[in-house]
Design brief:
Layout (H helix, E strand, L loop, with lengths): L1 H32 L18 H6 L2 H7 L6 H10 L7 H14 L6 H16 L2 H7 L1 H9 L3 H10 L14 H11 L4 H11 L6 H4 L11 H12 L5 H32 L11 H6 L7 H5 L8
Length: 304
């Protein structure tokens, strides 16, 4: 059950963040398209501003199959925002995130599910005239505001940073919700406590601690995992969960790397959202280990 929950949490966060990244990319493209630029020759259409989101997301072939020779802002926005048959559209990403959330309703908070469900219900009612009437950039701002849910999932997976709460002080209810998640055990914390209840020896300082602080590796946890990996048949359910968590860690790292490369491609080395250092800031996320002992233990598997 914990393994399924970890998998659904990963994909839920992945789809939420993908919707946000698509909104940021399209918003940059929209603002760039308002500036004067030279219309390119027919065989250079791939370099037009509105072609770039299609190329970056790998959807150019599908788009042109549906819209032969028709590269226009309206067509690209409809395709990348509202097209339910495009798995990279904002509509599809939010729908997929909500479906993953439904699968783990017993794991996530009711506020998290209801928040994401409300976003999906709103998204279902939005059409292109609505986006135009409310403002294209304003719509993208609304999508980007949903990224707090990704932060919540990172807290659930153990990537804790109390300082991030300051960003949400403008919304007391949201701030309180995130603070509660910050101060609760993560999925990894609960797994370690589960192993202790099953009789495995684990350090007390990892079973009871300040949950709001980032997790720190411990030799005692490495030793516990070594016992599991040295006798997987004896500890099969724990071994299976360990491997599922490694899958989550690996997928998160691969996603972070793709995120860095996408941002590089869109804005180069300009400053990022909220005044961050942009790409250099994102590269630091590649150094974050969610479940450090599960990687470290591989060094000692099979040794005495």
């Amino acid at each position: 059950m914990l393994a399924r929950a970890a998998n659904n949490l990963y994909w839920m966060s992945r789809h939420i963040e993908r919707a946000e990244n698509t909104a940021r990319m399209l918003d940059v493209t929209y603002r760039m398209s308002l500036l004067p630029y030279r219309v390119l020759e027919t065989d250079q259409e791939w370099a037009e501003p509105w072609a770039l989101p299609l190329v970056i997301t790998g959807r150019a072939t599908d788009y042109y199959q549906r819209n032969p020779g028709l590269l226009s802002p309206d067509n690209v926005l409809r395709y990348m925002v509202l097209d339910a048959s495009n798995p990279s559209s904002i509509h599809s990403c939010i729908q997929a995130a909500r479906e993953n959330a439904r699968n783990v309703r017993g794991v996530i908070t009711s506020e998290m599910y209801e928040d994401l469900n409300d976003v999906w219900l709103n998204m279902r009612t939005i059409d292109y005239p609505h986006i135009e009437s409310k403002g294209i950039s304003e719509f993208f701002d609304w999508v980007k505001l949903q990224s707090h849910q990704f932060r919540a999932i990172e807290f659930l997976l153990g990537n804790k940073d109390p300082a991030i709460l300051a960003v949400h002080r403008h919304d007391p209810a949201l701030h309180a919700w995130l603070e509660r998640l910050l101060r609760e055990p993560s999925l990894y914390d609960e797994f370690l406590r589960h192993l202790a209840r099953r009789g495995m020896t684990l350090p007390d300082e990892r079973l009871e601690r300040d949950w709001s602080q980032p997790y720190r590796r411990h030799d005692g946890v490495v030793a516990a995992f070594k016992a599991i990996y040295d006798a997987p048949e004896q500890h099969w359910d724990a071994y299976d969960m360990c491997e599922k968590l490694v899958d989550v860690e690996e997928n998160f790292q691969l996603w972070r790397f793709r995120h860095v490369k996408t941002v590089e491609r869109v804005i180069g080395f300009k400053r990022g959202t909220g005044g961050t250092a942009g790409v250099s800031f994102l590269r630091k996320t590649l150094e974050v280990a969610l479940f450090p002992e599960l990687i470290e233990v591989r060094t000692s598997i099979g040794s005495a």
